[in-house]
Amino acid sequence: MILTTVVLLGAPGPGTRAQDAGPGVVEPMDCPAVSPVDPTLHPMDGDLADSLDRAHRIATGHDVTVAVIDTGISPHPRLPGIHPGGDLVGAHQQEGIPGELIDCDGHGTIVAGIIAMRPDHGSGWPYDGTGDNHVGIAPAANLIAIKQTSAFVRHSGDTGVGTLGTLADSVHRALDQGAHIINISVVSCIPATHEHPGAIHPLDEALWRAEHQGVVVVAAAGNVGQDCPEGSTVYPAHAETVLAVSARFDSHTIASYSVASDQQLLSAQGLIPTGLSPRGDGFVSGVLAQSGHNPFEGTSFAAPVVSGTAALIRQRHPHASPAEIRARILASVDPARGAVDPYRALTMEPAPAPVPAREVHISAPAPPDDSARRNAVAVLGMVAAVVTAIAVTTGRWWGSRQRLKPSHSMNSSAQGRVP
Fold first, then answer.
1. How is residue 21 annotated by DSSP?
2. Is 300 annotated in the active site?
3. How much is the pLDDT for 19?
């Protein structure tokens, strides 16, 4: 199983709910068998397990709700209680069970497990060997199941199932029911040679509402194939407010089937060798279709790694905006391969946005008013001149007095010597 694709079958117009889209019949096909597997034979990737071990000491997704818009989610002992958010397919029905809790494809159940699988470390003492190291990215998160499409149905007439219109409807349903994160691993791929459908406007409106309601939207980047050649536009990964996630073959190689995105590269492992079974309480490695064993591989299964990471950040920073959560995730990835690391995304602070330069006009200060100083100097000068003049005059007068005194004495002596 690669990526379940939204099929464009006459999408309903703006404001039209999928169930009112027009006449048509959706018939269920037989659900495929699955391949059971022992989870201990395929332990979780070591690097991811180590990252989650450290991340879960800080956050586990508690009180964060993730909506999974997909093929439904089958209940499983390793999943939390699942809130039914709507069945927009209406094919596989069982009495007393909401259609969105019946996952014929297995696709949505695998996605849900990647996001919120509870750990099982075994029980008993000594250890009885029943546990494993598999755990979801945000194991304490809550889940909303919205069944938007299925590959195992037949359509006759205008059913309005699996369209861009039902995808927009699904986003609105998730928002109405209080989702904090929306994971969309079912996409619509429009080749570059095709005109973009008018039904894209309701989807864009739904994504706009999510952004302004504070909800982070994560979507698969899409898989290259016959109906999705390279260069195609993938919805909803096309939107700037959506985190588009590519798949990797291994720790350092982007999968060749990942549709290239115009956004910053963001990636996670695309192959899930062991996932939660949609048919019971065990684990499976794939589904058994007419073509043989189909493993769980594609960008569909890379996206929930990022959704779970966003749930961890949302718990840690409950008032962060979608843009701030996206910035934290994108700032933490390896720039060469876009690999997301939950612990690094949870703990790394994004670089502050550069402050734009602004022109500042500075005028030269007016020269200080020193007229008082000049007047004071002038007065002092005048005083000094007067004092100098007085000193000179007094000196001359005193000097003349000193010259007169000796002459008077001589005359007196002469007078005394007259016979």
1. S
2. yes
3. 42
Mean pLDDT (the chain) is: 85
Active-site residue identified among 70, 87, 169, 341: 70
Q: At what angle do helices 303-316 and 107-116 cross, to 10 degrees?
A: 30
What is the value of pTM for the model shown? 0.80
- Domain 18-122+131-347 homologous superfamily, CATH: Peptidase S8/S53 domain (3.40.50.200)
Nearest partner of 248 among 221, 281, 215, 209, judged by Cα: 221
Dump pLDDT digits (tens) for 60-110: 999 999 999 999 999 999 999 999 999 999 888 888 999 999 999 999 999
CA distance 162 to 183: 16
Specify whether 317 is catalytic. no
Select which of 107, 134, 180, 238 is catalytic. Answer: 107
132 classed as catalytic: no
- φ/ψ region of 24 (left if φ > 0, alpha if ψ in -120 to 50, else beta) reads left
Among 188, 300, 307, 332, which one carries the catalytic annotation? 300
CA distances from 274 to 19, 134, 191, 331, 417 (A): 35, 9, 32, 30, 153
Please give the Cα distance from 269 to 52 (Å, whole number).
15
